[in-house]
Amino acid sequence: MRKFSYLIILAGILVMLFPKANEWYNDWQQQKLLDEAEQSYSNTAPAAVDPDLKSKYAEVTQLLSEESSLDEQPPSDTPVKAEPQVVLGGNVIALIEIDKINLLLPVLEGATKANMKHAATHMKETTPIGQIGNAAIAAHRARTTGRLFNRLNEVAVGDIITVKTSEQAYNYEVYKISIVEPTDVSVLNGNNKDKILTLITCDPLVNPTHRLIVQAKLP
């Protein structure tokens, strides 16, 4: 009987520790990517713009919604299932840095569920970073303060977003911040003149229904 009680106590402890252990693992993966990126950036050829960008954007915003509860603590009486191992599917193509919110993240090529668990992701269907057009970067807005795009709502017009690739550091200046419907693909429009950067995450932080969009451009 005593042994059974110990097993129940142990199970309860494991249930409580699982969310924190999962967060530690994601942070470890993120730091590993940062270390690799700082040592050597991956060179990737410019991606062609996907003609069906609307459907791709819908997939990305859906992934952001699904990921919004990633680091949420489950009720104590809810069975915890181990997540299947995920494999990162993109190369580190850049680092994104926003000093104002103390953000430094690797940017992976391809906005997939696996990639968004540990990093910011460049939608490969959009313009390559630093070129004329609109380069979109999406990331999960984790509920843990400071993780991924958690503090993106603190960014203001005039702030600088630095994106460093293997070739150059680009200093984009924020010119527009908006909250839009998840289906509003117009945020990815370009004007054939400016070099635009669009950051995408969920809003509000809890039970998100919209998307927080931060747009910046090179001088």
What would the principal axes of the Cα set say about the shape? globular
Number of strands: 8
Going by CATH, the architecture of the domain at 51-70 and 88-218 would be Beta Barrel
- Low-confidence sequence ranges: 42-49, 72-76, 78-87
- Report the sheet with the most strands, covering strand number, pairing sense and barrel closure: 8 strands, mixed, barrel
How large, in whole angstroms, is the Cα Rg? 19 Å
Q: Kindly report the average pLDDT value.
A: 80
How much helix is in the residues? 25-40%
- CATH topological fold name of the domain at 51-70 and 88-218: Sortase, Chain: A
Q: What is the terminal-to-terminal distance?
A: 72 Å
Task: Tell me the structural class.
Answer: alpha+beta
Q: Beta-strand level of the residues, as a percent range?
A: 25-35%
Q: H/E order of the elements?
A: HHEEHEEEEEE
CATH superfamily of the domain at 51-70 and 88-218: Sortase
User: Reading side by side through the largest sheet, how are the strands ordered?
Assistant: 1-2-3-4-7-8-6-5
Total helices: the number is 3
The CATH C-level class name of the domain at 51-70 and 88-218: Mainly Beta
GO molecular function: hydrolase activity
InterPro entries: Sortase, Sortase_D_2, Sortase_dom-sf
Keywords: Hydrolase
Organism: Paenibacillus monticola
Present the secondary structure layout.
Layout: H1 2-39, H2 53-67, E1 92-98, E2 103-109, H3 113-116, E3 120-122, E4 133-138, E5 160-164, E6 169-180, E7 195-203, E8 210-217
Parallel strand pairs: 2-3, 4-7
Antiparallel strand pairs: 1-2, 1-5, 3-4, 5-6, 6-8, 7-8
